[in-house]
Amino acid sequence: MIEYSRQPHYLVAVDCIVFGFDGEHLKILLVKRGLEPEINKWSLIGGFVGADESPDDAANRVLKKMTGLEGVYLEQMQIYGDPGRDPIERTFSVGYFALIDIHKYQAQLNDDYEAEWFLINDRPKLIFDHNQMVADARKKLRYKAALHPILFEMLPKKFTIPQLHILFEEVNDTKIDTRNFSRKITSTGLLIKLAEKDKTGSKKGAFYFKLDKKKYIANSQAFLNLIPNLRV
Amino acid sequence: MIEYSRQPHYLVAVDCIVFGFDGEHLKILLVKRGLEPEINKWSLIGGFVGADESPDDAANRVLKKMTGLEGVYLEQMQIYGDPGRDPIERTFSVGYFALIDIHKYQAQLNDDYEAEWFLINDRPKLIFDHNQMVADARKKLRYKAALHPILFEMLPKKFTIPQLHILFEEVNDTKIDTRNFSRKITSTGLLIKLAEKDKTGSKKGAFYFKLDKKKYIANSQAFLNLIPNLRV
DNA sequence: TTATTAATTGTCGTTTTGACAATTAATAAT
DNA sequence: ATTATTAATTGTCAAAACGACAATTAATAA
Questions:
Q1: pLDDT (tens digit per residue) in B139-184
Q2: Chain A: which residues have CB within 8 Å of chain B?
Q3: Are B4 and A88 within 8 A, CB to CB?
Q4: pLDDT tens-digit profile of B113-141?
Q5: What is the least distance, in Å, from the CA of B38 to any CA of chain A?
Q6: Rounded to whole angstroms, how far apart are CA atoms B192 and A54?
Q7: A70 falls within a domain
């Protein structure tokens, strides 16, 4: 009856830009393909959307498979669907960016892929339109992180203000005054100061903080102003 | 060689939430389907993505066909892809929201569809997950409009501050002090005051303004703070 | 001429911002 | 033990932004 069947059918995939932070620099997780086409080339973590799963399900499945992690911060970015973006067959890909605590990551044994962390500013060329995806993801991460408290997702449970500070500078690619930053971030009320100090970075040591989960969830949609003189 | 062919294939569509403003209220454009399934039910403007077009192309094509308009403000929202969202066959849909000047709209003769404007707060139930799409689009419109100067897209070339004011209140579903709003919106530097006045709404008349195109383009990504006490 | 109405400009205390300085808490060197 | 050193933390302050609220203005209608 209806024309559905006459319409062309396509493959639908997901690709994840996985961001991590090693304490100094922003990194992304890439995989070396063990399959044709583009065998041995670096690419984003991705996979086809199965018959019984949503794109979100697929992204979570792929992430679990490649990082061993579940319930990570995952945000849909946009769809990539130019005809010809995949040389084999027309494929739509839903781009996601993920934020993970790099220390929780554990390499998964996998015959098809070989995963590796790269500095965001020193990464290999990627297949297809994956380079564009990374650029878009970075832009969106910067945008979102300027307004919402999401960067905690890349830090361990316990973290210090200086750690946060470096992360913010790294993501926004700018210098931020430590004194003003400290005041701003604590004034959000999202942090709980712990008794313990991290002495690895300095003689004085920096107090550990943890997230106030309740407030974090309640404020996840709130607008903040974490970046001075912000212009996107 | 590669497994692509063994993967399931799907339909990919676009659906557009078309927003307009009649001077008093926010409206959306809906169509009555003349096709099975869900014949005679109201739905969003949409269509399948053709073999040689991107989702953006498809959205523009569909909009042109249903409104007669080209080059309208169009923004990708998210993909809808739950299995079973379409009862006939698995279909992914890329949701877009569009902002148009309602007065430029002209009904298109179309055998398959019948289009009509509805008040955003008094609209019929829609097919499939289209109700969710409208809710999402409204939320995103509100979010975006709070930070970026996009609502001009729904007004004529010449507009008055009071018109803008009503539109902002309508989109954000809140009362905004006229005096502070006027000061804020003019201080963005995006408006050029014209000599002419609009006398239809009051005795004193309100000055017409037009957009400073150059500054508008340059600032389209700038953060503004147009809504007082903003909490999303 | 006056009343009316909505647009526009003005006032002002409070809060936020961001540039910059001073202090503090630890360890390492003397 | 004392001092130097270093990074974390707290402090200062002037300028700008914010938002609650009042007064004035420009037109038409009575």
A1: 999 999 988 889 999 999 999 999 999 999 999 999 999 999 999 9
A2: 1-5, 7-12, 35-37, 48-55, 76, 78-79, 81-83, 88-92, 94, 147, 221-223, 230-232
A3: yes
A4: 789 999 999 999 999 999 999 999 999 99
A5: 11
A6: 47
A7: yes
